[in-house]
């Protein structure tokens, strides 16, 4: 009984919630992995239909909600980093809206998730 309980705890402790949003990331020959000691960025995901989702929990937001959320996050953490996780088929206009919202909130570091060529 103890072994079964131990196995159960080990298996459930290793799961991390993953966003259910599946994106086909664009490829980049300059893609780099981020360092493990860096503070994780706030992630804005954009799917192929142009829907915006905020954070690791992938909470749906509108462009206006995103602006207010980013401003509130910058108040808490002035050196906030933003990462755009956009599907390669996402409307470019939505990506620009996210970048404008970041600039309006005075976020200095904005990156985009990509994958390395051929991977």
* Structural class by SSE content: alpha/beta
Low-confidence stretches: none
Placed side by side, the strands forming the largest sheet appear as 4-3-2-5-6
Q: Report the C-alpha radius of gyration, rounded.
A: 17 Å
Helix content: 25-40%
- One letter per element, helices H and strands E, the order comes to HEEEEHEHEE
- Counted by DSSP, the helix tally is 3
Task: Give the overall silhouette.
Answer: extended
In quaternary terms, these chains amount to: single chain
What would you note in describing this structure?
Helix 2 (63-76) packs parallel to helix 3. Helices cover 33% and strands 21% of the residues. The strands form 2 sheets. The protein has a 5-stranded mixed beta sheet. The longest helix is centred in the middle third of the chain and has 14 residues, at 63-76. By secondary structure, the chain is α/β, with parallel strands linked by helices.
Secondary structure blueprint with pairings:
Layout: H1 2-13, E1 27-28, E2 42-46, E3 52-54, E4 59-61, H2 63-76, E5 81-86, H3 92-104, E6 109-112, E7 115-116
Parallel strand pairs: 1-7, 2-5, 5-6
Antiparallel strand pairs: 2-3, 3-4
Helix pairs in contact: 2-3
Looking at this protein, list some descriptive labels.
extended; five-stranded mixed β-sheet; alpha/beta; single chain; 119 residues; two-stranded parallel ribbon; 3 helices
Question: How do you describe this structure in short?
Answer:
With 119 residues, this protein is α/β, with parallel strands linked by helices. It contains 3 helices and 7 strands, in the order αββββαβαββ. Helix 3 links the parallel strand 5 and strand 6.
């Amino acid at each position: 009984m103890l072994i079964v309980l131990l196995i159960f705890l080990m298996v459930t402790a290793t799961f991390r919630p993953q966003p259910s949003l599946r994106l086909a990331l664009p490829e980049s020959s300059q893609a780099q992995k981020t360092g493990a000691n860096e503070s994780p960025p706030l992630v804005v995901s954009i799917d192929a239909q142009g829907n915006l989702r905020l954070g690791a929990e992938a909470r749906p937001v509108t462009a206006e909600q995103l602006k207010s959320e980013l401003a509130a996050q910058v108040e808490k953490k002035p050196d906030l980093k933003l990462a755009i996780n956009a599907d390669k088929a996402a409307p470019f206009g939505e990506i620009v809206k996210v970048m404008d919202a970041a600039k309006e909130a005075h976020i200095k570091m904005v990156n985009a998730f990509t994958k390395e060529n051929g991977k």
